[in-house]
Write a structure and sequence with these properties.
Layout lengths: L1 E5 L1 E3 L2 E5 H8 L2 E5 L4 E6 L2 E6 L4 E4 L2 E4 L5 E3 L2 E5 H12 L4 E5 L2 E5 L8 E6 L17 H20 L2 E4 L9 H10 L4 E8 L9 E6 L5 H17 L2 H8 L2 H10 L3 H19 L3 E7 L11 E8 L3 H7 L2 H26 L2
Helix pairs in contact: 3-10, 5-6, 8-10
């Protein structure tokens, strides 16, 4: 889709009105007369212009457009160079922009909306995951039930293509799970798990994204989930394969998705806690093998503690599992709407 905007020449310089930009980017401006500033809210961020100067501030850094922001009649106009050079440089996700014959040409080369999501029910088959201390509930069963419910919601309400890494009780290696997501060109990867702890009073919900663990609790959860490799995928030799150069390189390649993964984790965590009233254990980073090599925003959710008798009983409740699925769905939906808007502008 191509969009053209007329520019206006002032003192030999091409300018474009904020009114026109707002229509293209769905942005908003607000003038502060006392501070002599214009606040430009675009793509979920804010840019602050100093009226009648060439300066603006973005994320506490000052930039110079060379040519000043101008008030013309009842509106504000920004130099065309801000749109053709500064916006793409600041956001790295803007429309392709060029100045042709007194018109700004915007090109959307492709639709970058989230269309395919891989939901990964953790564990399975010979790997039961955590086992409930009182009722002997198997983590692999809870994970699959909730994952299927999330799949149904995303398909029925958003019309997305949802792929499960497993739809029954089978074992799949951690590396195969993310390879599956990459092979299917998934836009998101969401791994569903249930927690356990030596401390039987531990309870609550937490969500992770891939990065170096920064707390002792995060490292403990990381070790718990990663032990699958040693127990069921070939012991220490298999662990070494996960830690070799190829995976180090894959982590580097994945770094561009870390911010989006953090945002996705935060959206899901906020909705889960609000909808279930469970203890908010927060969003954390950890080096999960199952998230490595997923070249897309990827998160791992811990739904609660099977080692806690009260939470184990709750996780067996059908209505509570429905609520878990619904709140995860709402978090993904909110992330999708924001992510799509940024990627397609």
């Amino acid at each position: 889709q191509n969009v053209s905007l007329n520019t206006q020449t002032v003192d030999g310089i091409e300018y474009v009105s904020f009114h026109s930009l707002n229509q293209v980017f769905k942005s908003i401006i607000k003038e502060d007369r006392e501070e002599n500033r214009v606040y430009f809210n675009i793509l979920g961020e804010q840019i602050i212009f100093l009226i009648n100067t060439s300066l603006y501030t973005y994320k506490q850094t000052n930039y110079n457009m060379i040519y000043p922001l101008r008030r013309i009649d009842d509106g504000f106009y920004v130099p065309a160079v801000f749109v053709t050079e500064h916006l793409p440089a600041r956001f790295n996700a803007g429309k392709q922009v060029s100045l042709v014959g007194g018109k700004l040409q915007f090109t959307n080369p492709r639709d970058s909306s989230i269309r395919t999501i891989v939901i990964d029910p953790g564990h399975g088959g010979k790997d039961p995951g955590a086992v409930g201390r009182k009722l002997k509930t198997l983590e692999k069963d809870i994970n699959l039930e909730v994952a299927i419910k999330i799949k149904t919601l995303l398909e029925n309400e958003l019309g997305l293509k949802i792929i499960l890494t497993r739809s029954d009780d089978r074992f799949i290696s951690l590396s195969e799970r993310t390879k599956y997501a990459n092979d299917n060109k998934a836009d998101l990867f969401v791994s569903i798990h249930t927690n356990a702890s030596q401390n039987t009073t531990s309870h609550g919900i937490e969500t992770y994204y891939l990065a170096t663990a920064t707390t002792s609790e995060a490292r403990a959860v990381e070790a718990l989930e990663n032990q699958v490799v040693e127990l069921y995928e070939g012991g220490r030799e298999a662990v070494q394969r996960y830690d070799d150069l190829a995976f180090i390189l894959s982590d580097i390649l994945q770094s561009e998705y870390l911010e989006a993964s953090n945002t996705l984790a935060t959206q899901i965590q906020q909705n889960l806690v609000f909808g279930t009233k469970a203890l908010d254990r927060g969003v954390h980073q950890a080096n999960f093998y199952v998230l490595r090599g997923a070249f897309m925003p990827a998160v791992l959710i811990e739904l609660g503690f099977l080692s806690n008798a009260n939470e184990e009983k709750l996780l067996l409740n059908a209505e509570y599992k429905d609520r878990l699925a619904r709140t995860i769905f709402e978090g993904i939906k909110r992330f999708k709407y924001r992510y799509d808007r940024i990627r397609n502008t």
